[in-house]
């Protein structure tokens, strides 16, 4: 039966080792060196004996407590006269007594003591030690421990540094802890009773429902006194740990520790997921803003074209009617008679003047209409740019750069966001980002005007150039055609041809004006949007990487969680 139990335990240990190996790989993928080392230590200690870790402040009597517990009749762990010379001492079973120095802060002591066949004891420096590295090295043993023995001075078990360390042990690692008031021979009966209850009460406040508190005297134990207090402590160890129970308890403790580490990773991944979702929402909000503002600008272009066409129609309709009346038989006869006997210009001169008036009206009235519409359009595009800038500045930060596990991820994100802000500021400030080489290739006269502004301040000049170029290209085409028609005017038979030709050119010009103005302005708006979106390329790449990394990390974490849950013995 014992062999069967042992075989079953060995199989569970092997399975747990594989799970913890996966957990170690997860911590490496995360890139957290300290946690990776903790998991590596946990994996290495799966097959070691049940580990007691003795903690407490300097001069609390930890080393004396350990010597009396081992009951070898001699001093195994030495209490250093100064904390500066203290080290961690790991006491384990060995057929021959020997001491191995692992590093300046850790030594292993091998002893042929029966109790060490089932347990190992780690005597640590004080929790309030001033020795560099001792605290962090002590904490490296906590995750792999199976039982924490917290030793206090019997006369004063309330030092804050000790209880702060207890919070780390119990709160962060959920380690089973018992409390020992050492040097009880130095406290009065009243002090001892008060402090036993006081420690139990503080432990209950920290979340331990039934705290185990023992009062001992290492000195009395070494002297063979019956009331040393070691009897109840040894009974507790025998009833709850030794006698074949230790291996199974250690296995369960290792599972719980692995779960604690995996849960920490889960908490960090939850924050990373929330940050990713916030960043994804931020990016979608940028796209939605760009789409809404682009649509609004395009609608303004449609309205601008409609207004310009209305003005265009009024001007050309009046001139067409004037032309029709002036070329009528009565009009021509009247003009011919007046030209012979008075100062009224002849038909050709009149036609030339009509063409000039048309040009002046188109230039003056269309330019005025353009000015009003361009200002509105420029303000709308400026508002879009400013809204994007504000959204970048106000993007939510959930994962802070002081996070326990993912500070480097948070810092990288912060750098990407800061670069985005800087890049967008530079983008907004540069005039060339608001021009278009293809559209402005033949408009060198714009350069002085644009140079006077900067960034979005140049929008009005840019849009006016786009609009006026279209308008005056169209009007010029109409006038050229009309001029050709007028030049050919000589006979009465060509009157209808001139009127029809003028009307046809007006319609062609109208269609061309609407098409070119709409195409140029909307192409400019679309091109500007593309330029704005280009600022987000690095941010988008970071989002893509984070999405893939999160999927891998969350999947691995979930697999480990389920495997550990299936192994726990309740």
Evaluate the radius of gyration.
45 Å
Taken together, the total number of domains comes to 2
Order of strands across the biggest sheet?
3-4-2-5-1-6-7-8
Shape: rod-shaped
Head-to-tail CA distance between termini:
21 Å
* Strands, total number: 8
Can you walk me through this structure?
- The chain has 570 residues and is an alpha/beta fold.
- It has two domains: 49-244, Rossmann fold; 270-561, no CATH class.
- The chain is 66% helix and 8% strand.
- The chain has helices at residues 2-30, 33-44, 62-70, 134-141, 160-173, 189-205, 218-222, 230-240, 246-326, 329-341, 347-393, 407-429, 446-452, 459-487, 495-534, 537-567, and strands at 50-56, 88-93, 98-103, 106-111, 119-123, 147-153, 177-182, 213-215.
- An eight-stranded mixed sheet has the order 3-4-2-5-1-6-7-8, sandwiched between helices.
- The radius of gyration is 45 Å and the shape is rod-shaped.
Question: Could you list some keywords that capture this structure?
Answer:
eight-stranded mixed sheet; Rossmann fold; about 65% helix; alpha/beta; 2 domains; about 575 residues
